UniProtKB/TrEMBL annotation:
GO biological process per UniProt: fucose metabolic process
UniProt keyword Amino-acid biosynthesis present: no
Pathway where this protein functions: Glycan metabolism
Extent of Low complexity compositional bias: 7-18
Keyword Glycosyltransferase: yes
Family: Belongs to the glycosyltransferase GT106 family.
Native species: Gossypium mustelinum (Cotton)
Protein name (Swiss-Prot/TrEMBL): O-fucosyltransferase family protein
Major place of residence: membrane
Transmembrane segments: 81-99
Keywords per UniProt: Carbohydrate metabolism, Fucose metabolism, Glycoprotein, Glycosyltransferase, Membrane, Transferase, Transmembrane, Transmembrane helix
Recorded topology in the membrane: Single-pass type II membrane protein
UniProt superkingdom: Eukaryota
Length: 556
């Protein structure tokens, strides 16, 4: 092996081919027996002793206090000593700083709280998204206190608008957000929305039975003027609910902002007060200005707060979920959409006895006769919908997917669901694989829930909050509840996972008789690495409520 060493001679000189010469020309920091023989008559011209003296003479020139020569002044020695001390202290500080940064977390601020943030690559977690993936975006739709209000004087309002928020709690929530946005578009005053009784929910809840009205009005005071009731000068209030002359009924679904300016605003100015009905999904997403979409997020995530008693009860349920094992534990919230109405409306085919299938066919024919027709086309439709991932996941399918993801049998699961179609028999596979399933009825006593049973939407609000605050949220089918939960968790920090199963791919895997468990596990894990609730780039006609990234979140 050839050993190369740099000699003290010029860069252009060649290394000696003699071993003796190579050692003699070696660096002064390399000590060996030969170079130490400085009394040899044949010693080379540049002896070790000469180089040794030359080396230290350079050191003395920088640090004269090391030299005993009296020619060096006392003043220069003091300066050099101070310089040496400064370099030594700086070196120690740098050394320990580098050591600490390599071996310990650093401090960072998130949501105003100082946290220990890891520097090293994180291992995949069942319960949290990687920290590095949660630092790129932050919420930015909140109200800026101290800013100037662009709200015109009360006497300059275009008029008053009134809406019925139809459907269940979450559909009503979306309608309220849209009503505030439409009032802003038309520079109109919004009358506090009425939560209309729904044929399915059959609930008589009022706005003030669920939401904090004072906070709602005050938080939006610089954006939109909101009043609690119909103005006193409008004497015939029943006319607003029944008269066609006071109702705008031709608003298309996902209408652009310009439609309201061109078609609705002139009627509001003429009549001074108008009702907009129906109002479900009557405002688009990508055809309205970004500041309007940002206002909708401000309403949804900041202005609409549940009543304190609902918040307190939800916090109690969350606390009980986190301490079910006797020590702090994470928990999963599962939104299980497998009620009879959902199964029937899906027109999908599910495992069951002939008797169950016959009863479901009768139910569908009764509830949706125009879609059912004679039933001959439904089998092909069911196959197509399942292939496209448009069928609700059965409880047993959910259990297999969660186990493939790696969640153990001991996982604590909060189930937000109505009455599951098929009862305990249908729930058995899920409960066998995950026995720690609980609902709010099992976490709280009848007395604790008695005050919330007066309104179905109050119970739905409890489910909403417990799912929102869970460590992992899992949806099994679409709907306003799931997309509002996922959207809110994305907006508030997206650290906790929100899992949206790929039902289309799962249906193929479930239908493959040759797929082994190991292959299935790999498919599930790989497929859902990017389906855990991180913000996603938006696209035309995207759903603002599920993914509020572009208008409502900013680069961190």
């Amino acid at each position: 092996m050839v050993e190369l060493r740099h000699s003290g001679s010029s860069l252009g000189s060649r290394a000696s081919s003699s071993p003796m010469k190579r050692d003699e020309d070696a660096s002064p920091l390399i000590f060996n027996d030969h170079v130490l023989r400085d009394d040899d008559d044949d010693h080379p011209r540049h002896s070790f002793r000469d180089r040794y003296r030359s080396f230290w003479s350079q050191i003395y020139s920088f640090f004269p206090f090391l030299n005993d020569d009296p020619r060096f002044s006392q003043h220069g020695s003091r300066i050099s000593l101070l310089l040496l001390l400064f370099i030594a202290v700086a070196g120690l500080i740098s050394f320990f700083s580098i050591l600490q940064r390599l071996n310990s977390p650093y401090l960072c601020k998130k949501d105003g709280i100082v946290l220990h943030c890891p520097r090293v690559k994180e291992n995949p977690s069942l319960w949290e998204n990687p920290f590095s993936a949660t630092t790129s975006w932050k919420p930015c739709a909140e109200r800026h206190d101290g800013g100037m209000s662009d709200l015109p004087p009360e006497n300059e309002t275009s008029g008053y608008i009134f809406i019925h928020a139809e459907g269940g709690l979450n559909q009503q929530r979306i309608a309220i957000c849209n009503a505030v946005a439409v009032a802003k578009i038309m520079n109109a005053t919004l009358i506090l929305p009425v939560l209309k009784q729904d044929q399915i929910w059959k609930d008589q809840t009022k706005f003030e039975d669920i939401f904090d009205v004072d906070h709602f009005i005050n938080y939006l005071k610089d954006d939109v003027r909101i009043v609690r009731d119909i103005p006193g000068w409008f004497t015939d209030k029943s006319e607003l609910f029944t008269s066609i002359r006071r109702t705008v009924k031709n608003i298309p679904k996902y209408a652009p902002a310009q439609f309201y300016i061109d078609n609705v605003l002139p009627r509001v100015k003429e009549k001074k007060i108008m009702a907009l009905k129906p109002f479900v999904d009557r405002l688009g997403y990508d055809n309205v200005p970004p500041e309007i979409n940002r206002l909708r997020c401000r309403v949804n995530y900041h202005a609409l707060k549940f009543l304190p008693e609902i918040e307190q009860m939800a916090n109690l349920l969350v606390s009980r979920m986190r301490n079910r094992t006797g020590s702090p534990n994470p928990y999963m919230a599962l939104h299980l959409r497998f009620e009879k109405g959902m199964v029937g409306l899906s027109f999908c085919d599910f495992i069951g006895t002939r008797e169950e299938k016959a009863k479901m066919a009768e139910y569908r024919q009764k509830e949706w006769p125009r879609r059912y027709k004679n039933g001959s086309h439904l089998w092909q439709l069911a196959l197509q919908k399942r292939k496209e991932g448009r069928c609700p996941l059965e409880p047993g399918e959910v259990a297999v997917i969660l186990r493939a993801m790696g969640y153990p049998k001991e996982t604590q699961i909060y189930v937000a669901s109505g009455q599951v179609y098929g009862g305990q028999n249908r729930m058995a596979p899920l409960r066998n694989m995950f026995p720690n399933l609980v609902t709010k009825e099992e976490l709280a006593s009848k007395e604790e829930l008695a005050g919330f049973r007066k309104h179905v939407t109050s119970l739905a609000a409890l489910d909403f909050l417990v799912c929102l605050k869970s460590d992992v949220f899992v949806m099994t089918h679409g709907g306003n509840f799931a997309k509002l939960i996922i959207g809110a968790r994305r907006y508030m920090g997206h650290r906790q996972k929100s899992i949206k199963p790929d039902k289309g791919l799962m249906s193929k895997s479930f239908g493959d008789p040759y797929m082994g468990w190991a292959t299935f596990v790999e498919d599930v894990v790989v497929t859902h690495q990017t389906r855990t609730g991180l913000p996603e780039e938006t696209f035309p006609n995207y759903d603002l409520w599920e993914n509020p990234l572009t208008p409502c979140m900013c680069k961190a």
